[in-house]
Amino acid sequence: MTIAELSPAYIRAISPYLPGKPITELAREMGISVDSIVKLASNENPLGMSPKARAAVLAAVSGLERYPDNHDLTRLLAERLGLAMEQVVLGNGSNDVLDLAARVFLAPGRSAVFSRHAFAVYPLATMSAGGECIEVAAKDYGHDLDAMRAAVRPDTRLLWIANPNNPTGTFLPHEEVKAFLAALPADVVVVLDEAYNDYLPPALRADTLSWLLLFPNLIITRTFSKVYGLAGLRVGYALASGEIADLMNRVRQPFNVNNLGLAAAIAAFDDHVFIADSFELNRRGMEQIVAGVKRLGLDHLPAHGNFVTVHVPDAAGVNQRLLKAGVIVRPLKGYGMPEHLRVTIGLESENERFLEALAKAL
Length: 362
Ligand SMILES: *Cc1c(COP(=O)(O)O)cnc(C)c1O
Prior knowledge:
By secondary structure, the chain is an alpha/beta fold. The protein has 14 helices and twelve strands. It has helices spanning 9-12, 23-30, 51-60, 71-81, 94-105, 121-128, 145-151, 174-183, 211-214, 242-251, 259-269, 272-295, 315-324, 348-361, and strands spanning 38-39, 88-91, 111-115, 132-136, 156-162, 189-193, 218-223, 236-240, 307-311, 327-328, 330-332, 337-344.
């Protein structure tokens, strides 16, 4: 008996999450300066954070001896989104609320359904809670809702959907998701992960929050990590019926979002100029990268977030050569996509650096 064997088999079966390569690590490995590196690997906001959020963080440094009070952010979200405060669950990043959903509804003997090539946290959260993973084959790299419905078993309690999805960028029209929810057994809780919702063009958006009234088994999750530029502060949230939110809040660590994160999120949420700038920059960058990879004769998946997923036959080799050129993107072998690279949409100059390095690396 080893110490590791004292842990349940379902914990030992977890493969750890692989983050995008940090800039400092590549700088050390290659002996090059941090400033010469372009990181387009973790879907971070190339504009940084909202200046209003920055000011709020600096002001909140006075007061760090106090435990956090999450009331103001909870109330702000409830008011702006037209929900009751009892329907909001704050998380240390939305990753945290995904985990809370799994802990509330899964246990050994229960299962969760998700799509192949979906966000890596779904199997992690499922397995951490002892749930069994039911991975469903993808359709054109996106969620196959009919197959996901067919995969639901009597012991299935959770079903994960990312819309748009990461790392594929695929998007399900909202009417299809709504019809799917309506046809699903009521004892399956659906987590609808809307981390990239803010990057959808207006024509593709829908009032999914109104669905919370129709589907008591729905959890919608959102994050401050992407368009709000606060990935390093770790703030996300879930919206659900009061009943579900109450359960999630019972297992939530009381102080899971820290003072700086709370202050930044409150300021960032209403910084409409920064959000609009981030959105516009992303649309222009998307066109730039899509046009650039097409010129190089490469195919890409339809992009709906702040990244483009490109088909690159020798992705591993190309990735190595990009790293040598100081450009970090995300190889997707771990997502079952060994011939794809995911590139985060950066500043115009960063996108150009990527395209030039890619042309040489091919
Ligand atoms: C980035 C991302 C999140 C957000 O993660 P945080 O923990 O909020 O930083 C959630 N879901 C998906 C699909 C993502 O890509």
